[in-house]
């Protein structure tokens, strides 16, 4: 899996709220379970968190740990 790294344009909009990302504390996110597609840019962690919650992106994506099992993730 290879990804190209580049700096977004000065007017890049937040994927959640459409604010300019560089007016805030920008975050770049890629879905590398789907061939590391195009990055999504968020202006801050609040917008990223809201996007994750509204799209139910954490469902089924976490390890489940049991203290009684010897093979955990």
From TrEMBL:
It comes from Natronosalvus hydrolyticus. This is Uncharacterized protein. It comes from the Archaea. The lineage of its organism: Archaea, Methanobacteriati, Methanobacteriota, Stenosarchaea group, Halobacteria.
């Amino acid at each position: 899996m290879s990804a190209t790294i580049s700096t977004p344009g000065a007017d890049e909009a937040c994927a959640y709220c459409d604010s300019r990302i560089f007016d805030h504390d920008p975050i770049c996110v890629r879905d590398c379970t789907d061939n590391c597609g195009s990055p999504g840019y968020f202006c801050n962690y609040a917008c990223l968190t809201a996007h994750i919650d509204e799209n139910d992106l954490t469902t089924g994506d976490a390890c489940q740990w049991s203290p009684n099992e010897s093979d955990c993730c």
